[in-house]
Amino acid sequence: MTFYPSYWERSILLKTFDFIVLGAGIIGKQIAIKIKIKHPNARIAIVDRYPLPLGASTRNAGFACFGSITEILDDMRHSSLEEVFSLADKRRRGIQQLINEFGTEKIGFRPTGSYEIFDKANINDLDEALNQIDFINEELRYRTGLQGVFEIKNKLTLGMNCIDTVFFNSHEGMLNSGMLNETIASKAHNMDIIPFYGFDVKHIEETAKGYELSNDQGMKINCNQLIVANNAFASQLFPELNVVPARGQIIITKPIDMIPFDGIFHSDKGYIYFRTIDNRILIGGARNHFKQDEETYEFKGSDEIKNYLESYLRTIVIPNHSFEIDMHWSGIMAMGDKKLPIVERRNDHLLLCVRMSGMGVALGPILSDEITAMV
Ligand SMILES: Cc1cc2nc3c(=O)[nH]c(=O)nc-3n(C[C@H](O)[C@H](O)[C@H](O)COP(=O)(O)OP(=O)(O)OC[C@H]3O[C@@H](n4cnc5c(N)ncnc54)[C@H](O)[C@@H]3O)c2cc1C
Question: CATH topology for 10-58+179-242+338-373?
């Protein structure tokens, strides 16, 4: 189909926008909301190619977390202390802002705390974590004001087939990703932000007064300020960006009687994560063992990762129960040469808020504040 505009479309519906936010995931929607609050009379559109956001926002594990101890130690090998701990602080503040802004009930937040567990395969990580716990706690106290974030506990209460020593962080918790998306969407849609869902942006062109976005049907929308918030897909439109897709796969069990634990759990430098939800266990990750295969935009998951996660679940997480796997899905995250988001103004008419590096649930509130401060 080719699009031939009517007079009404050209004169009103497709009239130049003050702001277009490209990408209607949780980041794009939070940006649009905050710009509308800052500029109430502005004409703002939010554009997405699908009716529901299809990337990472509706497909993650619903962790409200700011980094397990081995994830932080791993990050310290690749980034400066300043980068690592200011990111942890932004994640912590972001979670708090979600709770303050929307309320725990609207986003299904529960302050369960989190545990990090170890098995024989990552015993070296445990040794390093035990050696570094005081240093990490001190850095976190300095950056976040929180005392003694990581505590050493015994696994006995969890009933898992893991090493006795586990780390507990009482400041993390779980949320319901479906509720979070719906709550943010409902706020955006009540605010006179114009949705353009079903508009697959294929071309972006700079104009004298801003940017023009077009799809394959020839429909064009113009704006003065374009805010790109399509995360992993940013490099499809801006190939010069250092943004690489990273698929994250998840499986969930059918309901299980008497699960002996509750909360969110990390292992293997944050690459394994699992939690309870509705009497089920959801587990995801293992991307580090299949790194190249997972650098893909393909949503269909792989048997290799599904089997890996299922085996981890049966042997380590809940070894003495029988259960069935109910679902397997994946989401596409955005990584790059640094585990740091790209939040910047590119020119007078273009801003980027992409490459969430698998942390966008927690970072979204703070990064959307940062972008809004630039417009
Ligand atoms: C398995 C998994 C586990 C995760 N765990 C955590 C965690 O523990 N903690 C945490 O903080 N975060 C976590 N995340 C990451 C978090 O979900 C993301 O960082 C966040 O959702 C990114 O949101 P976004 O709005 O930037 O991008 P997305 O949700 O990916 O949205 C991008 C949108 O842009 C649209 N789009 C793309 N290209 C175009 C185009 N050309 N035209 C029109 N529309 C387009 C897409 O359709 C999509 O709706 C996890 C993610 C996954 C997948």
Answer: FAD/NAD(P)-binding domain (3.50.50)
Tens of pLDDT, residues 98-114: 999 999 999 999 999 99
Pocket test for ligand 1, best of 34, 48, 250, 352 (most atoms within 8 A of CB): 48
Decide if pLDDT at 157 tops 90: no
Vertex 183, ends 340 and 143: CA angle to 5°? 35
Enumerate the domain spans of the chain: 10-58+179-242+338-373, 63-175+244-335
**Furthest-apart CA atoms within the chain: distance in Å:** 71
Bridge partner list, 350: 226, 347
Ligand 1 pocket (Cβ < 6 Å) reads 23-28, 47-50, 53-57, 59-61, 63, 65, 200-201, 229-233, 237, 248, 250, 284, 331, 333, 356, 358-362
Q: What is the pLDDT of residues 35-76, one digit of tens each?
A: 999 999 999 999 999 999 999 999 999 999 999 999 999 999
In the chain, count of helices (H) and strands (E)?
10, 18
- In 113-245, which residue ranges form alpha helices assigned H by DSSP? 123-144, 177-189, 234-237
Q: How confident is the model at residue 154 (pLDDT cuts 50, 70, 90)?
A: confident
pTM exceeds 0.90 for this model: yes
> Domain 63-175+244-335 class?
alpha beta
Counting from 1 in the atom list of ligand 1, the atom nearest the Cα of 273 is: 8
Q: Are the beta carbons of 171 and 147 closer than 8 angstroms?
A: no
